[in-house]
């Protein structure tokens, strides 16, 4: 959260000798969003007055997440303000490489793969021997066998689909056929 808060306070402006009740309210609001006042890399004024009577001040503040070490500080550039009475503020936010999958494995509702998955699952469940369950340990073995086989049957019938900007979970072969027919 950044902006010109128009609050002078000794907490962020060493040239101002007083504490403001408004800064307490601002900190309460920031705290409700789990953010805190960011410290500038160097202490510069953010607002400049040309009348010579008033001191320059710090009115522009930056609030970030305290746990984010990468961008929990900001830069003030008083020389870049040109004709403005406020100095530009910069926060560097690192952008990490991120893996974005382009393929996904799924069972499409109503597909042949889903039907074969259900058939195999029913067949395995029918053949599951539960007559030897006599205690918690034997029950655990049967449950583990069931879980393992459900997973194996699931992976056996998965279909790999390409994820594109037009990818929709509900899109199926009927949709492709109707689109082809329309075109």
- Spatially, the strands of the biggest sheet line up as 1-4-2
Beta-sheet strand percentage? 5-15%
Total of domains? 2
**Cα-atom Rg, whole angstroms?**
31 Å
SSE class: alpha+beta
Number of helices: 4
Distance between the amino and carboxyl termini: 49 Å
Q: Strand tally, please?
A: 8
Fold and architecture overview:
The two termini are 49 Å apart. The mean pLDDT is 86. The protein has 183 residues and is α+β, with helices and mostly antiparallel strands. The strands form three sheets. It has a three-stranded antiparallel sheet, with helices on one face. The chain has a three-stranded mixed sheet with strand order 3-5-6, with no helix packed on it. It folds into two domains: 89 residues, no CATH class; 80 residues, no CATH class.
Task: Give descriptors for this structure.
183 residues; alpha+beta; 2 domains; three-stranded antiparallel sheet; three-stranded mixed sheet; 4 helices; 8 strands; 33% helix; elongated
Summarize the structure.
By secondary structure, the chain is an alpha+beta fold.
Q: Which helices and strands, and how do they pair?
A:
Layout (H helix, E strand, L loop, with lengths): L1 E3 L16 H12 L3 E2 L1 E2 L19 E5 L8 E4 L12 E2 L12 E4 L5 H16 L8 H22 L1 E4 L10 H10 L1
Parallel strand pairs: 3-5
Antiparallel strand pairs: 1-4, 2-4, 5-6, 7-8
